[in-house]
Amino acid sequence: MIRVHDLHKSFGAKRVLNGVSFEVGRGESLVVIGGSGTGKSVLLKCLLGLESADSGTIEIAGITRPRPHELAAHVGMLFQASALFDSLPVWQNVAFRLMSGPARMGREKARAAALEKLARVGMAPESADLYPAELSGGMQKRVGLARAIAGEPPILVFDEPTAGLDPILAAVINALIREVVTEMDATAVTITHDMRTLRDVADRVAMLHEGRFYWQGTAAEALANEDNPVLAQFIHGRIEGPIPTLR
Questions:
Q1: Across the strands, what pairs with 3?
Q2: Residue among 186, 216, 212, 135 at smallest CA distance from 27
Q3: Are strands 2-11 and 55-60 parallel, antiparallel or unpaired?
Q4: CA 243 and chain centroid, separation
């Protein structure tokens, strides 16, 4: 479902991606980890067509070098800060793509679809007419997830899905992500610093370091690995190691 080969991206003299290559199969959940400033967000933007790579190839759902409008029917995304529209009630946030995308679903049908997806993520029907400012951070994440799956896209992208949540709420969101990915047989790519998310969500893990996927393997292999000093330092949050830290 996703194929990336030898992807390069620089901003002026700063090289961010330096030959990233990977594939994600149908129904597979890939979690991408890496330190702050290593290029995870840039990689995500290149995948979604929001940034143009300098060289290399990207193929998503059979579309080569996709542009954002070409991916609308294929990709659902949960943003780090939820990115809900403050001026729209919850149900319209969830149904936004259904009403504004190619389907142009009618208002009544779109509301029914939104209520169904809200129920799927544990939101009560009465929440549909609330506004984002009336919701807690955890509820906003649930609404963001409902919006991501509203069109039942074959590919789901999660950008730091547990950022800003306490450990219990983070576990709830991770469980919901794992459930919907499995139920939909969706291909998933998750960007995270959270090792709990890695444990709960990943089929496979890739570590972005020095502009490339420095290590790839299963979640169990990542968590148990002590042979790779870069991976082990990051996984276990160690100060000492090859990854430089500010003192």
A1: 23, 59
A2: 186
A3: antiparallel
A4: 24
Q: Kindly report the pTM of this predicted structure.
A: 0.91
Ordered by where they begin, the domains of the chain are 1-74+157-247 (3.40.50.300), 80-152 (no CATH)
- pLDDT 10s digit of each residue in the chain, 247 long? 999 999 999 999 999 999 999 999 999 999 999 988 889 999 999 998 889 999 999 999 988 888 888 888 899 999 888 789 999 999 999 999 889 866 678 999 999 999 999 999 999 999 999 999 999 988 999 999 999 999 899 999 999 998 888 999 899 999 999 999 999 999 999 999 889 999 999 999 999 999 999 999 999 999 998 888 999 999 988 888 888 875 4
Annotate 172-221 with three-state secondary structure.
Answer: HHHHHHHHHHHHHCCEEEEECCCHHHHHHHCCEEEEEECCEEEEEEEHHH
Q: Is 104 helix (H, G, I), strand (E, B) or coil?
A: coil
Nearest to 204 by CA among 32, 10, 9: 32
